[in-house]
Structure formats: structure tokens, C-alpha cells
Design goal:
With 200 residues, the protein is of the alpha/beta class. The chain contains six helices and eight strands; from the N terminus they run E-H-H-E-E-E-H-H-E-H-E-E-E-H. The chain has a single domain, classed as Rossmann fold, CATH 3.40.50. Helices cover 30% and strands 20% of the residues. The chain has an eight-stranded mixed β-sheet with strand order 1-8-7-6-5-4-3-2, with helices on both faces.
Length: 200
């Protein structure tokens, strides 16, 4: 298990999208749209909704598919199915899988990056293909579950605890670990966690 320290203030790089920026955009569509536009990515309003946000960079022909974690009552039912190994049969999973296929067909990107937080992390790992870049944070892992792509967890995050010793997992040191899991919902920067991990 690796540890990385990210306690500097949130930074912005006009040419790169950080993991935090991508995940923030999945929870805060209006603000995320403005943030991503500054970095050359445009929201696909037809395909995006409160669960998945689809961004495309026409200049670089790159697709960014972000998946939010649990944020409503229906998601709690999905979480229950996740705990018994039935995630792929949920509407949330099927919706994300279908939207990703539609986005790839529509844009024919040269590169696809898929990010997810919490429940969205596991959906991202499930729908991503071997040629996709999969970057996730604080996945809601169950016993024996494997990681796919680059997986990160915030130190002290209880939701991702079962994945802390899995392959491809890096634990990020975190000053505010008591509230680490919900900080994306609140718009907090995790004290810098994920802000310096550039994904695309």
C-alpha cells in the first residue's frame, strides 16, 4: 500500500484536469461545467445527468466520463445490492454502462478517462475497458474485491477501508480524515487530496 501526501492548496492547471476537478464536476454540474470549460472540456448536456457527467475536449479528442457516488435514496438501494455482489444488475450501473457506450460511439475519442467516487468508483471500474484510463477515489469496496485502473483512497476513509490493501491502491494522506468521504459533496478540497493527481 502506498502513501502520498497532498496537503497543499487546490491547484489549477489549464492544460490538465485533476482527479478532484473531475469528481467535483460529477457532483456539481453547474460549477463543474464552468471549471471544465476553462480546461477545454465541454459538457454533453444530452448524455449527462445527476449520476454521470460526460465531457469532451474537441481539440484533443479526449472523453472524460465522471460518475458521482451515492447522493440520493435510490443510490442507497444500489449500495445494498453492491454489498451482496449484485452491482451489475442495478439500474445505476446499467445506465452508466449505456451512457459510456453512447458517448464513445458519438465522439470516437482517441482517449477515454473514467473517474468515479465511492459508489461511482466501483461503477467506473466495472464499465471501463482495458484501453480506458480508470482513476477512482474512495471506492465502496466489499470483501475480496479487486481494483482496476488507478485507485486512490483518503487516509481515514471508512467507506474505502476494505480496498486499502488491494492492488493498484494508493492511500493519500489527509488532514481532515474524519469528514474525508463527504467533502466532494460539500465542495471542500480534501485539504488538497486529489488536487495534484493530474489525470488527463
Amino acid at each position: 500500500m502506498g502513501y502520498m501526501k497532498h496537503d497543499r492548496p487546490l491547484t489549477r492547471n489549464n492544460n490538465k484536469v485533476s482527479l478532484y476537478d473531475a469528481l467535483y464536476a460529477s457532483y456539481h454540474l453547474k460549477e463543474g461545467k464552468k471549471l471544465m470549460k476553462r480546461q477545454g472540456y465541454y459538457l454533453d448536456k444530452k448524455l449527462s445527468n445527476h449520476n454521470e457527467s460526460i465531457y469532451y475536449n474537441p481539440k484533443e479528442k479526449k472523453l472524460l466520463f465522471t460518475i458521482a457516488g451515492t447522493h440520493n435514496y435510490n443510490d442507497w438501494l444500489t449500495d445494498a445490492k453492491l454489498m451482496v455482489g449484485n452491482l451489475k444488475n442495478t439500474n445505476r450501473y446499467k445506465e452508466a454502462d449505456e451512457k459510456l457506450k453512447m458517448a464513445k460511439q458519438h465522439y470516437s475519442p482517441v482517449e477515454t478517462s473514467i473517474t468515479g467516487h465511492s459508489l461511482g468508483s466501483l461503477i467506473a471500474q466495472g464499465i471501463g475497458k482495458s484501453n480506458d484510463k480508470i482513476i477512482t477515489l474512495d471506492g465502496a469496496y466489499t470483501f475480496g474485491q479487486k481494483t482496476k485502473g488507478d485507485a486512490y483512497r483518503s487516509q481515514g476513509d471508512i467507506v474505502s477501508l476494505l480496498g486499502s490493501n488491494t492492488k493498484n491502491m494508493t492511500t493519500l494522506k489527509n488532514k481532515n480524515f474524519i469528514e474525508s468521504h463527504k467533502n466532494l459533496l460539500l465542495g471542500s478540497s480534501f485539504g488538497g487530496v486529489g488536487a495534484l493527481i493530474l489525470i488527463i
